[in-house]
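Re: the 131-residue chain
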Amino acid sequence: MANVIVTGGSRGIGLAVVQTLAASNYTEIAVARQETKELAVAREQASESIYFIPFDLSEVGKIHELTRKVRERFGPIYGLINNAGLGTEGILATMPESSIEKLVELNTLAPIVLTKYAVRSMMNEGAGANR
């Protein structure tokens, strides 16, 4: 089976993507800070095609280690779906700079860095979707 990483795969749209791809013979690696009850049930029902890796994407400096662990445990990375995101309350005009930094780090920087390492892995291993 082809390994696909889905960030934010523990609930909502990410969980729906994980379940849909697992039903289509992909091995899904759901990445999120915590496993939800819904993801645990989906993993139980999927019979070893859905896995969970706890990881906080705001720790951008550790993303390389995440991709290394995925390759070591599951083999080549075939695909990546950057679904995780952080929403905020309020308006930009009154938002503290620290909140803006967290927002940009998780919603922009983390997906770019994760994509860099996932694509690098795909290129090195001759794996991945070319669409």
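The helical segments are 12-22, 37-46, 63-74, 97-125.
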